[in-house]
Design brief:
Blueprint lengths: L4 E2 L20 H14 L4 E3 L9 E5 L8 H4 L2 E12 L3 E6 L9 E6 L1 E7 L5 E7 H14 L10 H15 L9 E2 L7
Parallel strand pairs: 1-9
Antiparallel strand pairs: 2-3, 3-4, 4-7, 5-6, 7-8
The protein binds nickel (II) ion (NI).
């Protein structure tokens, strides 16, 4: 089932997500729905707050990159209760977008290497290191479960330049091709 994606200005996007257990109601169905919602919106990552739930759950699928990099294209992960253990000191910048902030893309500086602990959908525990674009996507989604958006991380000047666009999204004035829920109550 395709779920509405909560847009910039929705209070749930500013909450710190809670850990969940294997007994979380309809967890498998929720994960399936998050993937379906993400694919429908042509996204590569989606975090639970973006579908209105303040829990520590995110899904990623880099399949759109399979032609240019087969290994990256095979990167598909559910991360439950992730905890960032280390970030490298080296950073790089790359343009990001977000399904909760349609029509805005900005360059964001992030650590190029991370170490993270997480559980998969069967609650097997992993501690893994990721680099480059994979680390970036994980960090973007991880930020969502910490109540942080990529627009928080851009320069004050850039933020000033996009402020009116962000305000318009929060007021329901925007266009996008997927189902959303805006804080002004507009549903499409
Ligand atoms: Ni996002």
């Amino acid at each position: 089932m395709i779920l509405p994606i909560y847009l910039y200005g929705s209070p749930v996007l500013r909450k710190t997500g809670k850990n969940i257990g294997p007994d979380y109601p309809n967890l498998k169905e929720l994960i399936d729905n998050m993937y379906e919602t993400m694919y429908h919106a042509n996204g590569i990552g989606l975090a639970a707050p973006q579908v209105g739930l303040d829990i520590r759950l995110l899904v990623i699928d880099l399949a759109p990159y399979k032609d240019e990099d087969p290994e990256m294209g095979a990167f598909k992960k559910v991360m439950i209760n992730p905890e960032l253990l280390e970030t490298g000191s080296k950073t790089d910048s790359y343009e990001e977008g977000c399904l909760s902030i349609p029509g805005i893309n900005e360059s964001v500086s992030r650590p190029s290497k991370i170490k993270i602990r997480y559980f998969d959908e069967a609650f097997n525990e992993y501690v893994e290191e990721f680099e480059g674009f994979r680390a970036r996507v994980i960090l973007h989604e991880y930020d969502h479960i910490e109540g942080v958006l990529f627009t928080d991380k851009i320069s004050p000047l850039r933020r000033q330049l996009i402020k009116s666009k962000l305000d318009q999204i929060a007021r329901g004035k925007f266009s996008c091709s997927y189902k959303v829920k805006s804080p002004s109550g507009v549903k499409r």
